[in-house]
Amino acid sequence: MSTCVETAVKILTTESSAWGIVAEPQSASFETGVVIITGGLQYRSGAHRQSVSLSRQLSLAGFPTIRFDLAGLGDATGSIHNFEHLRPQVDAALAALIRQAPKVKKVVLWGSCDGASAALLQCADRPDPRIAGLCLVNPWVRSDSGLARTHIKHYYGHRLTEWSFWRKLFGGGIGPKAIEQLLGNLRASFRQRQATHSFHEQMAQSWHALSVPILLLISEKDLTGQEFMDHARTDKAWHGCLQMPNVQQHIMPGADHTCSTPGGHELLVQLTQQWLLSRFRH
């Protein structure tokens, strides 16, 4: 049975010291590696040890990978940084992978949730020639008005077509708190997007400027992913992003935010691996 070799490596920035795990195939590898950026406050194992499984399986397919702790999480020192300010840490992890696996010349950034947003922001302003592609899973573009519109469209929109909802409403089966939540979402959905969400525009500018392959994976049952799709389809800054020829997108049926549903993680790995093999098999 094929196995991969895992090595702990030190990842240093001016503000933190962290550990990363590099997974390399025992046999020959490709010249493209994968840097896994976890989402939220997850350390290097990822939600449900997703990063461990993904790293090992991509390595067995021939792609050396690194998964690593972000500052302030897991075994890393330093303070936790917002996803908008992870560039030094991602730079250091990328360099650590290339040092440990010298055959690797370029990397794909793989990120989930705000890790996906961080991967996209990594390419803003100053393109890095070492970055050969991006794999983005349920990218984070959260705003109060955007989330409210998403709730209305993907939850309430479905419920409002069900007779059972109206029967419960008129029969008193829906409490005041639920009704107030619906009204609150309706009010918020009509508000203008806040100008302070500058990372939205930075992400859009980076996306437009990229010519490298982009894989976009969206979970069918995830409001974060649905909010991103709604935002990308309607916001002027994102106009045409999803139709760019370098973009491949998939909706993962039945999957939740962390792909914890039966078969969800397996599909996530399969789609990632197939995309990598179709573009970076050299």
How would you describe the overall organization of this protein?
Strand 5 (106-112), helix 3 and strand 6 form a beta-alpha-beta unit. The protein folds into 2 domains: 4-142 and 197-279, 3-Layer(aba) Sandwich (Rossmann fold), CATH 3.40.50; 145-189, no CATH class. Helix content is 40%, strand content 19%. Residues 192-196 have low confidence and may be disordered. Helix 1 packs parallel to helix 9. The longest helix is centred in the middle third of the chain and has 16 residues, at 144-159. Strands 1-2-4-3-5-6-7-8 form an 8-stranded mixed β-sheet, with helices on both faces. The two termini are 23 Å apart. By secondary structure, it is an alpha/beta fold.
Descriptive labels:
40% helix, Rossmann fold, alpha/beta, 8-stranded mixed β-sheet, 282 residues
Radius of gyration: 20 Å
Number of domains: 2
Biggest β-sheet description: 8 strands, mixed
N-to-C SSE series? EEEHEHEHEHHHHEHEH
Would you tell me the overall average pLDDT?
86
The dominant shape is: globular
Structural class: alpha/beta
CATH topology of the largest domain: Rossmann fold
Low-confidence stretches: 192-196
Counted by DSSP, the helix tally is 9
Identify the CATH class of the largest domain.
Alpha Beta
Instruction: Let me know the number of strands.
Output: 8
The CATH architecture classification of the largest domain is 3-Layer(aba) Sandwich
Tell me the strand order in the biggest sheet.
1-2-4-3-5-6-7-8
Helical percentage: 25-40%
